Amino acid sequence: MKLKTLMLGAVAAAGLAPAAFAERGADGEVKIIYWQAPSILNPYLSSGTKDIESASLVIEPLGRYDPDGALVPYLATEIPTVENGGVSADLTSITWKIKEGLLWSDGTPFTAEDVKFTADYCMDPSGGCAQLAKFDGVGSVDVIDPLTVKVTFKAPTPNPYGPFMGGQSPIIQKAQFEACMGANASSCTEQNFNPIGTGPFKVVEFRPNDVITMEANPNYRDPAKPAFAKLTFKGGGDAEAAARAVMQTGEFDYAWNLQLAPDVIKSIAEGGKGTPVSAFGTLVERIEMNMTDPSPDLPEGERSTVAHPHPFLSDVRVRKALSMAIDRALLVELGYGQAGRPTCNLVPAPANYASDNTDCLAQDIEGAKALLEEAGWTDSDGDGIRDKDGKKMSILYQTSTNAVRQDFQAVIKEWWSEIGVETELRNIDASVYFGGDPGSPDTFQKFYADVEMYAKNFDGTDPQSYLSMYRCGNEPKPSSQWQGENINRFCDPAYDALLDELARTGELSKRGDIAKRLNDMLTKDSYTVVPLVDRGRVSAHAVTLGGVALNTWDSELWNAADWFRIKSN
Questions:
Q1: pTM of the entire structure?
Q2: Which domains does the chain possess?
Q3: CB atoms closer than 10 angstroms to residue 15
Q4: In terms of Cα–Cα distance, which of 519, 157, 496 is closest to 353?
Q5: Residues 442-493 pLDDT 10s
Q6: 355: closest CA among 158, 538, 529, 159?
Q7: CA atoms within 13 A of residue 395's CA, in its CB half-sphere
Q8: Angle between helices 365-374 and 316-324 (to 10 degrees)
Q9: Other C-beta atoms within 10 Å of 278: how many?
């Protein structure tokens, strides 16, 4: 309500009159374009942002994070805390109260059974859940009554807001998905493409990697929302075409993730049909170093740091040398301008959790060469490529297809060439790369390359679930339908023990200290994750689209129910 009041006030001050909030669907159609096309509408089977955010229009969590990172109730009556009795004094449980009268889009009641089912679905040991880290430390989820559900943790948990909070952990309908548990999850095409939800919109037609047609949910809890009767969600193309479609031609109302050079965005914005919006959060462009042999010829399930370590990236000196050769400041200048900052950290914010690690910021080509020499990698035949024991230091470097990322690949290849490393570049269509299809060899989860680059962030302002991604056993594998968040197959029992300590630590300053140590273990100690750029989120919306509040702590589409069409008097 506060957001709506602020938006209406701003519109009135501009001399415009909104025709929104009078009745559901009064403003016709809204058009959204994501140049990475959604391939599924089940975020438990994909960690791709495109899939999580498109699904957030349909299925919702119990609570969300607002643009300031504050926790706000959505399907719950309030955010449980120790003070209001929702979180137990011993921090071992959290009890959620569900709003009365909530309906699924098919008209059936939303109950605590659906919440419990969602947890059971994700935690099923015979399945694969892309958001399993959200349920790290959960012992059980129990229905107390139709509108009350209790999550009990295995140990005191000062941050109990992993399950059911934010766009990465929404509630799915038990009646629709109960035949899709475990190994059956990925085969439930109808359910995964057309989820029944409580959100402002419902799916009419989903064409994977292309377009989603939605209409206003007739059972949405606010009878005056959404303002739009129809929503078209177009996927594919590239970031520049998406920007032009909003800010120059006016064909679309909202364009996500304008990963373009600053001068390009400025030029396109001169079209006058739309405006760019930006904010910093926790989005980090990084290179992941494969800790295992990436060969697809290995028997499925045998990729491990013990049985099949990477032929040369298993040496920390090699990983560090590759990082030292990179000029992060130049990458920012090349790709992001004021919308980017060089970083050495996987967790760049909030300040309480951000390490003071700056070791990587100064490029050191000569130091990188010396480190490779120390590791025994020399150019024995004078061809410019280092070798050792008859093996060339040759790297396959993959990422998604995007102009900025291909620019990054090109300059990083040049820097690595200077230190004697041969690099083959590969780019994959983003819809495939981030799609999570267990049958595709080209997903970032399967990681059939030596290094790969992408960006990721976390819901909310606490990085516990995010850092838990790198827990031993959370790697994608055949038994989990190639779902899993430990993409580079990092495994360190000391890291896992520190995760457990974070989970039971309540004092904010101590939580910050532990999170910083975990960040440093992944980055400056082991260089298994090589952060490059702390990226500001840049999107654009039509000048006639009101209610937009860019959110870097949750789905960008978190408040689509509040969007409306601005009309001139």
A1: 0.81
A2: 2-273+543-568 (3.40.190.10), 280-379+387-536 (3.10.105.10)
A3: 8
A4: 519
A5: 999 999 999 999 999 988 899 999 999 999 999 998 888 888 899 999 999 9
A6: 529
A7: 28
A8: 170
A9: 16
